[in-house]
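Archive entry. Fields below.
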Amino acid sequence: MTATQTERQTGAGSITGIIDSDVHPNFKDGLRDLRPYMTEAWQRKLGIGGDATWASRFAAASYVLPLDYLYINSAGAYREDAIHNGEAPATDPVFSAKQLFDGHGIDVGILIAGQLFGIGAFPDADVAATVASAYNDWMCEQWLAVDPRYRGALAVAPQDPAQAVKEIERVQGRPGITSIFLPLHDILHGNRHYYPIYEAAQKYGLPIMVHPSGTENVFAQAPRMAGTPTYYIEWHTALAQIHQSNLLSLVCHGVFEKFPDLMYVICEGGFAWAAEIMWKLDRDYKGLGDEVPWLKRKPSDYIRRNVRFTTQPMIEPHKREHLNTVLEMVYADETLLFSSDYPHWDFDDPKLALAGIDRDLLQKICHDNPMAVYGHRL
Amino acid sequence: MTATQTERQTGAGSITGIIDSDVHPNFKDGLRDLRPYMTEAWQRKLGIGGDATWASRFAAASYVLPLDYLYINSAGAYREDAIHNGEAPATDPVFSAKQLFDGHGIDVGILIAGQLFGIGAFPDADVAATVASAYNDWMCEQWLAVDPRYRGALAVAPQDPAQAVKEIERVQGRPGITSIFLPLHDILHGNRHYYPIYEAAQKYGLPIMVHPSGTENVFAQAPRMAGTPTYYIEWHTALAQIHQSNLLSLVCHGVFEKFPDLMYVICEGGFAWAAEIMWKLDRDYKGLGDEVPWLKRKPSDYIRRNVRFTTQPMIEPHKREHLNTVLEMVYADETLLFSSDYPHWDFDDPKLALAGIDRDLLQKICHDNPMAVYGHRL
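PREDICTED_STRUCTURE:
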């Protein structure tokens, strides 16, 4: 661990290449992978203790991680070439490092969520907090310790902010921790519920990272979208809605006035939509500023200062010349961070996905902007 | 099949013993058990084609049956002694027949739902209909054909009533089919959405059976309860709410005026609560009858004529002498049907669960009432 730590501590200055803000390490066998990281009592409580393997196939016998169980991806959801030795994609940190870093010329990858995207849908806050905590130990031991190019977002459960703060304090000092992964929940992010988490994030210089949960309109306690889609393709495109609503909530509640140093990274949520939202908020603010008197700047200023978007899934305008225009509209030189979404089916190779972007802007998206967001923690 | 069919056709008259209205056959490996009963195209669409076994552990790679994934039963959810040869409970029709029929002196058991309780939560109506249809073929071939004491409720998907009617017409004439299992959905049962299903049910003399879905407040498109429980014990007791709401909806919409011969069997939904609902409806009806002018009798008359309740989980009044009073309040001599809920953890043995009930009433609950409901189809 010491060697890894040293490399990492000296790493920030030496990173000259691409920083990937969205990499997913997977469990081999769901929650059971976390057994070594929780007490026997908790294993029993989650239904993953003992050897009743038949039970894992039955509902009400063991918890499952809330994910996108009712929308399936007919393309397979994962890169087929990420299947290694017959194991599921991104379950082997050595193979994944070789494929992602060596294969695509990426310097550093931030691990986010594993399959914890949806724990905000657990109705029992203690279950969610225990799973998050076990995941953090698993991620540090099974992934961060294995290759010095990995970094990690520590996971917290959104249901009980007091427990989340304790978890941040427990894990934030470990080598390779760059940020906080805050799973989506059915309370929008501007609400006071989350302020203890934001306070801790600001105190420890940890950006908050959010990511589609896969539970949107699947589970009752998950974030909702406007209406229930039928097909995966329909649902997958609508996933951006919760990020739009959370962004509006954060700005309008004045979260970035209260926590001016808080950074909020929207992973895999799209970004082109942010242009219209900035324009609309700024326009409305002229007439409706009295409703949100705690704002001291125009709304888009907060987004440009405190919010970042990751690139994947990269936009593909019908007319290629529109790409740079959209990037300008969303202030990509300040707000955009490269991400690959390894090992998912719609993985973005930086060379292909970012083709056609000017060299200076590319340097910002791939390196300078992430360096500014994660700072010394890289 | 012919021998079985003959035994069954002559069976109705010869049944003198206990009829069990709630028995659950289980899959060994979830949806994959249904592969032989659907096209390859549908297997691929559901993510259960091919051999990518790792994929079954990942969300978005294969559909799962919507069930109670976020509330787990620390008692194990199943009778431990129903585990046979290391296989999950109620996956072997021969062993299950021996344990349920021979072991508990039960004459006939109606198979309901398997693990299809929650298919009303699927956002894609075609997925739900395909799963229901494959289940019906599986149930007939793997269970009804194996032991002449099994009967079956044919499953339909509630999302698309036109498809449900076609499925009723396809399956209703098969040997051993006694009824229709209608999975719960987020549209209450009095609504016109369901009338084509009720019309077919009445036409073919098939009672509608309903059962808790396990998805209540778990999945977004599932029936909701009032507020979100945290613990299984809390959630399990609140499950009756959707049955209460459906019953109110059926009565107030006048469904039993429109379909006077329709029988509606509430399985595992409790029954003591029905007394207060009958009293309250009848009382309100005196002042509010103008709002529901299509009702020609007082509300409780419809419940006594068209609605039946299964016994399990049997009530256990603190004072034993209250048992017979409650049974009288709910007109148990007309409305109650014995059920065991085999192979679940809270299985009711008829000798133990019904102890203390008068012999005449027992005969009605265990035999005469079910004979009247399922009629010649038994």
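CURATOR_NOTE: Chain A touches chain B through 57 residues (CB under 8 Å).
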